[in-house]
């Protein structure tokens, strides 16, 4: 891969020489050279010098070897905002935007929100950015993840309280108007954990090292005492877990239990309300 990008090669030639997925290649070339997509097109006659060729080749090689683009360039867009992304956190994905959309609809004025297992802070920051009247708290057991999340809140001018916590540990005596979570839900041993970008992401953010439902059970079981009456619990889960999650919610006494589909038509988020009485 490296020896296919050489000094003297023009941007036009490089673009006509697909070494990777075209979108990935464009993003990485722009990042390596510090130019926009427009400049990549309009400067097609620009020839790479030796240093530029080395930088481009190095990034393309990293992606060719499997490293996620978000980690290579250190950022990912989510809900219209720019997030720092490091190997300490799960890469924000478009599927999770559904959870934010549902949360914003169900969050009352000046509501209190709890985001459990915040990772990069994508969910909490997106909610706080769109609802500055809300009081947003985000928890994570990883200090490294919390550091990334705090920088993302600052980066996007969002007010979020971050707490180091093993699930509800740090908020035992508090109550919220909405609880949201994108917890680890891939079952231990699932083949997807050894494929694609997931190979590089923190395993503790992907799998519960059990049946894929243990974190969801913990959240469902602990939420009623920390939810205001009539308030919602919303959780992202795996593509084949909606039936199981609805069953857990119903068994725990939640009302209006339902699931919502993502843009691909997959039931991606399920939730229910704490009874009003």
Automatic annotation (TrEMBL):
Reaction catalysed by this enzyme: L-glutaminyl-[peptide chain release factor] + S-adenosyl-L-methionine = N(5)-methyl-L-glutaminyl-[peptide chain release factor] + S-adenosyl-L-homocysteine + H(+)
Gene3D superfamilies with a match to the protein in the record: DNA helicase RuvA subunit, C-terminal domain, Vaccinia Virus protein VP39
Domain Methyltransferase small: 96-190
Residues reported in the UniProt entry to bind substrate: 182-185
Domain Release factor glutamine methyltransferase N-terminal: 23-74
UniProt gene name: prmC
Natural source organism: Massilia eburnea
GO biological process: methylation
Function, as annotated: Methylates the class 1 translation termination release factors RF1/PrfA and RF2/PrfB on the glutamine residue of the universally conserved GGQ motif.
Family classification: Belongs to the protein N5-glutamine methyltransferase family. PrmC subfamily.
Highest taxon listed in the record's lineage: Bacteria
UniProt KW keywords: Methyltransferase, S-adenosyl-L-methionine, Transferase
Protein name: Release factor glutamine methyltransferase
EC number: 2.1.1.297
Pfam families noted in UniProt: MTS, PrmC_N
GO molecular-function terms, A-Z: nucleic acid binding; peptide chain release factor N(5)-glutamine methyltransferase activity
Nuclease is among the record's keywords: no
NCBIfam families listed in its UniProt record: hemK_fam, RF_mod_PrmC
Signal sequence interval, chain numbering: none
Binding positions for S-adenosyl-L-methionine per the UniProt entry: 117-121, 140, 167, 182
């Amino acid at each position: 891969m490296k020896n296919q990008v050489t000094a003297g090669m023009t941007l036009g030639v490089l673009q006509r020489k697909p070494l990777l997925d075209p979108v990935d290649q464009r993003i990485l070339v722009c990042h390596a050279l510090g130019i926009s997509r427009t400049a990549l097109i309009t400067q097609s006659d620009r020839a790479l010098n030796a240093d530029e060729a080395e930088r481009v080749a190095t990034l393309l090689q990293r992606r060719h070897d499997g490293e996620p683009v978000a980690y290579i360039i250190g950022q990912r867009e989510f809900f219209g905002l720019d997030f720092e992304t490091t190997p300490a956190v799960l890469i924000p994905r478009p599927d999770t935007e559904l959870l934010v959309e549902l949360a914003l609809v169900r969050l009352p004025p000046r509501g209190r929100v709890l985001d459990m297992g915040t990772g990069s802070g994508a969910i909490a920051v997106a909610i706080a950015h769109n609802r500055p009247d809300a009081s947003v708290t985000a928890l994570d057991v990883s200090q490294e993840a919390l550091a990334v999340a705090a920088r993302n809140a600052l980066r996007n001018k969002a007010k979020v309280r971050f707490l180091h916590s093993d699930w509800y540990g740090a908020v035992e005596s508090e109550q919220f108007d909405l609880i949201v979570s994108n917890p680890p839900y891939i079952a231990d041993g699932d083949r997807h954990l050894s494929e694609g970008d997931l190979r590089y992401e923190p395993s503790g953010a992907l799998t519960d090292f059990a049946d894929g439902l243990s974190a969801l059970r913990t959240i469902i079981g602990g939420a009623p005492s920390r939810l205001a009456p009539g308030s919602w619990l919303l959780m992202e889960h795996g593509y084949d877990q909606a039936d199981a999650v609805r069953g857990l919610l119903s068994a725990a006494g939640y009302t209006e239990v339902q699931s919502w589909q993502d843009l691909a038509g997959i039931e991606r988020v399920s939730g229910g309300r704490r009874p009003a009485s």
